[in-house]
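Predict the 3D structure for this chain.
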Amino acid sequence: MHEDRPRLTRRRLLQLGIALPLPAVLAACDGATGGDRAGGGGPATTAGSAPAGSATTAPSQALPPTPACDDGDDPTPAQTEGPYFTPDSPERASLLEAGLPGDRLTVAGTVLATDCRPLRRALLDFWQADAAGQYDNQGYRLRGHQFTDADGRFRLETVVPGLYPGRTRHIHVKVQAPNRPVLTTQLYFPGEAANADDGIFREELLLAMGGDRQASFTFVLEA
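Done. Predicted structure below.
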């Protein structure tokens, strides 16, 4: 009767169990937005140089460890790339820059294979709109790639994206295990009214939100 609904594994249920609505996460911060343009980026095969990003305040409430993997978990769903992909983004774990408006956000997590192996040196290339819902299509603002560590972990410092016309809040990402195909997908925020009207939105791609604008996600790749 519900065969078309996504399978909720133990890992996904644990992720959703710690999810909080985005308004609650942002309640303690100023809702600063601005007209500066922000960016999108795509996968890069070579590491580029980039200025160091601004540091975020140390969180007072850390997210729990990434939930245990269920052997045989379904791969993370693929999604459309969209019109604002730009290749050869700089290698950097922080997309923050001096004067960049918006609420600071940290996204951390793990890249796993379907057999639960952590994937070392997996590429993650992020791009997104800025706090005003605009993409930087001239440069690399709010665009960057990084690689997972020996335990398959990644950590991204950025800002909460604004609403792009016709879409709910989202972050684009390309994920690729070494010498394997590229997964192109998008990450979403819980508690967003626009989720219900977004034709691309998928619940399996919701970030798990913790306190102090901390989020987590576990990517599962066929590798």
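The chain has one domain: 10-48+61-221.
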